[in-house]
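Hi R.,

As promised on Friday, here is the backbone we talked about, encoded as structure tokens. Could you run it through your design pipeline when you get a chance and send me back a sequence?
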């Protein structure tokens, strides 16, 4: 019986030691759980910060992208006007070349008209002189004819 009591006491002591060991292990776990939990929470917090920063950066990059897309659409709208302007410029250049050719021809014609005017003036002077000479000659003949008649 003593032996049974001793075994019982040993079993109880072993049981108490197990409980005490488990309590200490639990305390260590709680102590260990504190830094682990803090580390996990820190990692989660950092992950959230990185996610928010990424979203913020993505959003910030979306603004210039939207501006660029808007500018591209405006440039596409202007492309038709630019093509029309190019065609009009070509037409104006052709017209300008034609006007230059016509100006050269007009200058030549103006010089010729000026020469013709000078010739006409000279012919008018000669005609006037011829008329005067002819009148004088007629008058002289008439006078001579009268004088010879009387």
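Update: got your reply. Pasting your designed sequence below so it's all in one thread:
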């Amino acid at each position: 019986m003593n032996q049974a009591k001793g075994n019982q006491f040993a079993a109880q002591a072993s049981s108490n030691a197990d409980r005490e060991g488990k309590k200490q292990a639990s305390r260590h776990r709680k102590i260990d759980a504190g830094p682990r939990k803090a580390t996990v929470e820190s990692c989660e917090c950092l992950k959230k910060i990185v996610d928010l920063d990424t979203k913020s950066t993505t959003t910030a990059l979306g603004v210039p992208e939207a501006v660029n897309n808007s500018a591209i659409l405006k440039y596409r709208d202007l492309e038709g006007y630019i093509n029309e302007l190019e065609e009009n410029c070509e037409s104006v250049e052709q017209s300008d070349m034609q006007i230059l050719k016509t100006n050269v021809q007009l200058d030549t014609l103006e010089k010729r008209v000026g020469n013709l005017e000078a010739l006409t003036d000279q012919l008018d002077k000669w005609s006037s002189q011829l008329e005067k000479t002819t009148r004088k000659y007629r008058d002289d003949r008439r006078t001579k004819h009268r004088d010879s008649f009387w």
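One thing I noticed while checking it: The longest helix spans residues 2-149.

Thanks again,
M.
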